[in-house]
Design a protein that fits this description.
9 helices; globular; about 190 residues; mainly alpha; Hypothetical protein af1432
Length: about 190
């Protein structure tokens, strides 16, 4: 079992990467915090027995694993913080299976998948994107791209979720986020 100090240092490494090199405005340090928090809520609500360090580390690194270079950054951080090879492999498997179209085998992978998809329908995430567009930090094309993807993928997401807690929360968040995307529509009509 990894020590709490090693876990904390690996999380801080992920946070530094996300602050300095976010994938984009909706895959930044705030998104990863929300996903980690969602993982903890799911575990508690469903009374799951999981390898918690695997879930937490995977949640903080899940969108950093976009290419070989960032995958190496994950491995280097975990090795530097004295995680075993078997632990690193578990985390990489969980991270790899969190995307749409991937199959989640382990309980840890199912938790991360659901947590990430709940963040996908978080109206605050959409509001942050719209604010970034208003502030000139992000361009409207990125917002339109996300909106299109959201409306294409989201109707199928609920059936992919693994836990009743996730499905219940998904329903509550879906309509709120749909309204937020309505604001984006108004911006493009101007």
């Amino acid at each position: 079992m990894p020590s709490s100090g090693n876990i904390t240092r690996a999380i801080l490494d992920a946070q530094q990467e996300l602050i300095h090199n976010p994938f984009d405005i909706v895959h930044d340090v705030i998104h990863h915090f929300q996903v980690c928090q969602n993982c903890l809520f799911i575990i508690e609500a469903e009374k799951l027995s999981v390898e918690l360090p695997v879930v937490i580390i995977s949640a903080w690194w899940h969108d950093i694993d976009r290419d070989l270079e960032t995958k190496i950054a994950i491995i280097k951080s975990l090795e530097k913080n004295h995680f075993s090879n078997s632990f690193i492999k578990k985390c990489l498997k969980v991270i790899k299976s969190h995307s749409f179209g991937k199959k989640q085998i382990s309980l840890e992978a199912k938790v991360l998948f659901d947590a990430d998809k709940l963040e996908y329908v978080n109206p605050l995430r959409t509001r942050r994107l719209i604010q970034a567009i208003n502030d000139g930090v992000e361009n409207i094309d990125k917002g339109i791209f996300y909106k299109k993807g959201w409306f294409e993928k989201t109707p199928q997401v609920k059936d992919m979720l693994h836990f009743s807690y996730s499905k219940s929360l998904f329903d509550k968040l879906f309509e709120k986020t749909k309204k937020e995307f309505g604001q984006l529509e108004a911006m493009t009509v101007k």
